Amino acid sequence: MFDAIDQKILKIIQTNNLTPQRDIGEKVGLSAAAVQRRIKKMRELGIIEKDIAVIDREKIGNNVTILVELFLDSEKIEKIDALKKKFETISEIQQSYYVTGESDFFLVIVVPSMAHYENLTRRIFFGDENIKRFRTIVVMGITKNSLELPLNLLIPNEK
Amino acid sequence: MFDAIDQKILKIIQTNNLTPQRDIGEKVGLSAAAVQRRIKKMRELGIIEKDIAVIDREKIGNNVTILVELFLDSEKIEKIDALKKKFETISEIQQSYYVTGESDFFLVIVVPSMAHYENLTRRIFFGDENIKRFRTIVVMGITKNSLELPLNLLIPNEK
DNA sequence: TTCATTTTGCAATTTTGTTTCATTTTTATG
DNA sequence: CATAAAAATGAAACAAAATTGCAAAATGAA
């Protein structure tokens, strides 16, 4: 369960999940039916988390990307968990990383404008007594933007 | 061209691009055929950049996520462009942000292990004379992981 | 208002995904 | 290494989804 062929399939669909199963089958040396079953199972197991369309922010316009480094006051678990949950519900927060080191969180935020960001900042950072300070890093350009995992490098861990 | 209905469609498929066009049609008040045509056009225009499956790193195992803050020596355009291109080709680099402020780049890196990261580090950072220094931030947990854009907040910019 | 253009819905068509079933392959066990 | 049970497979039938043609409706510009 979960072999080299599954890995090949993942490699293909993490780049383009609209690839017909027929085509995938050809590339990995299986019938379309077999591919379909494997994909189905990986969806059930949660190996495949979701299937999404990625929208180009440039084309849509009105988008500013900002990275935020967060420094917390207290590092009590409950407080941290509360923050995590809060972040999940905020649509402007695209990604939230809980990290080690001097700071505690890194956020990737997308907003229509700087004004909007300033507002958001008031709403979620200044209002929170757990947040000691935060650093705002304005993104000038995104040169790579994916959620791809480097499956080539995968060391076999299940058989 | 590009109206509120397109936005609704994007909102749906950026969460689940396997949603049948019939269902999308119902939600936005159009026939499946109309939805299909709109999606097709948005793909052609590049508004929809790509369609992908997202894989759960936890389930795959052998994955360590690391954020890297890069400080460059020279800020000459050619040098920066060279770096951007280099990063694109490296499969461990999932995301690359070119930023303002003290530092120049933020990278999201996924590797099978810390040992692998150390190696990567030698290969791409220490070898490069443009890179003054870099800060490694180890990710303990990812509490939100998407490429979704907050389309609710979109200010109409095209008619 | 009128004409040209665009967008739409419906129905037909095509493509893709899914299931069934008999067979093969794999795995575990004696 | 023989063999029985379990799992995975391909081919074909089937179902569901996407795509296209076409006439009608909506939209926009003059």
How would you characterize the overall build of this protein?
Two copies of one chain form a homodimer. Chain A has 159 residues and is of the alpha+beta class. Chain A is 38% helix and 29% strand. Chain A folds into two domains: 4-52, Arc Repressor Mutant, subunit A (Orthogonal Bundle), CATH 1.10.10.10; 57-138, Lrp/AsnC effector binding domain/regulation of amino acid metabolism (RAM) domain (Alpha-Beta Plaits, 2-Layer Sandwich), CATH 3.30.70. Chain A contains six helices and five strands, in the order αααβαβαββαβ. A four-stranded antiparallel beta sheet of chain A has the order 3-4-2-5. In chain A, a hairpin with a 5-residue loop joins strand 3 and strand 4. In chain A, helix 2 crosses helix 3. The longest helix of chain A has 13 residues, at 32-44. Chain A is elongated, with a radius of gyration of 20 Å. The relative contact order of chain A is 0.16. The mean pLDDT of chain A is 94. At the A-B interface, strand 1, helix 4, helix 5, strand 3 and strand 4 of A face strand 1, helix 4, helix 5, strand 3 and strand 4 of B. Strand 1 (48-55) of chain A pairs antiparallel with strand 1 of chain B. The structure holds a DNA duplex (30 and 30 nucleotides). Chains A, B: Residues 2-63 form the HTH asnC-type domain.
